[in-house]
Amino acid sequence: MIQIGKPAPDFTAQAVVDGKIKDVSLKDYKGKWVVLFFYPLDFTFVCPTEIQGFNTKHDEFVKANCQVLGASVDSVYSHMDWMKDLGQLKFPLISDMTKRISRDYGILLEEKGISFRGAFIIDPEGILRSYTVNDLSVGRNVEEVIRIVQAFQTGELCPVGWKPGEKTLGKA
Length: 172
Known about the structure:
The chain is of the alpha+beta class and 172 residues long. It has one domain (12-140): Glutaredoxin, CATH 3.40.30.10. The chain has helices spanning 47-56, 58-63, 76-86, 100-104, 142-154, and strands at residues 12-17, 20-25, 33-38, 66-72, 93-95, 108-109, 114-115, 117-122, 128-134. The longest helix is centred in the C-terminal third of the chain and has 13 residues, at 142-154. The mean pLDDT is 93.
């Protein structure tokens, strides 16, 4: 079972990276912040809005030393075909065909064989710092995900709605 403040479950899986199929591991990103987000399926209605949202904000994540990783239970071949419609992505899109990663992160909807919409923030040491999980019908706010990463990076207490450049409440 996952728990805040504990190591995030490690994984190695195939992904589409820059239009090619490659193996991706959480360990590959040691020393960086990671946002690992899951979505239910390729070729659906809400999912492309989220993926395009993460893609649009990619440069902000990079400035925050944060790697975005997307994942679903689809194959890398499905991902590649879907990218013909989505366009080139700036982050890896992981195939969780075995559903092991979704299960390890506690977001697999077993009876449908798909993942809930989970977003996991992992610090540079591989420790899980935050996660949110939505039901299938509602997408996430990508700006809120980057704001949370930036708030953690201050190492300080951040009040509700805090944004970079604003005063924090002091040391955590």
